[in-house]
Amino acid sequence: MLGITDLPTYLVGLALIILLPGPNSLYVLSVSARRGIRSGYRAAGGVLCGDAVLMILSAGGVASLLQASPVAFSVVKLLGAGYLTWLALGLLRSAWSLWRRRDVRHAGAAVGEAAGQPPHERPYRRALTASLLNPKAILFFVSFFVQFVDPAYPYPALSFLALGLWVQLFSITYLTLLIFTGARLAAAFRKRRRLQAGASAVAGTAFLGFAAKLSLTSA
């Protein structure tokens, strides 16, 4: 169907890959816990749009360019690692601020700063940027998709489109679960400043790990 071979195996592999923790899913969970369901869906929208762009670039041959040009790959990789590091430092800064002010009763302004993000944080833009600055994602989409595309099918673009739609369906389902999980955590965070600070510190440390991992990868 549409040049896709072994669809059940593809869906199983896709589910396992999406369930792996990564910076995008962690950011959506963090935003939902700090700013609520609406902001969580804005962040999820950034992730979905970023993935859609990367899949289009993959099908358009950008993956081949990144593989052929170590310089281009390194530039995009370092930009992505730098952006993740910047997000991580914001989270850690906020965790320290929350910990120092943990005994203050009136937390109104601090709640909005929960994970190092100021009140004007733009979840969609941040999630989109983090998604786009990940060259490994482009290479992944090509290397994973090509295993399930029939080389004899005359319209491979349709095959990539169908496979991409499955990715988006699985992603929005998983991100929705994270959004509502984060929203449930929000009440606990507002009541317990130490827990809020600890969660921000853990998230910041995780983002530093993601940045280090990305900076050490190769095409």
- How would you characterize the largest beta sheet? none
Topology as a string of helices (H) and strands (E): HHHHHHHHHH
Quick one: overall form?
Answer: globular
- Could you tell me the radius of gyration in angstroms? 19 Å
Helix share bin: over 70%
Strand content: under 5%
Number of helices: 10
Secondary-structure content class: mainly alpha
Which SSEs are present, and which pair or pack?
Blueprint lengths: L6 H13 L3 H13 L1 H24 L1 H7 L1 H31 L7 H5 L10 H10 L2 H11 L10 H36 L1 H24 L3
Helix pairs in contact: 1-9, 2-3, 2-7, 2-9, 2-10, 3-7, 3-8, 3-9, 4-5, 4-8, 5-10, 9-10
Structure, described:
The protein is built from ten helices and no strands. By secondary structure, the chain is an all-alpha fold. Helices cover 79% and strands 0% of the residues. The protein has helices at 7-19, 23-35, 37-60, 62-68, 70-100, 108-112, 123-132, 135-145, 156-191, 193-216. Mean pLDDT is 75; it is low at 104-118.
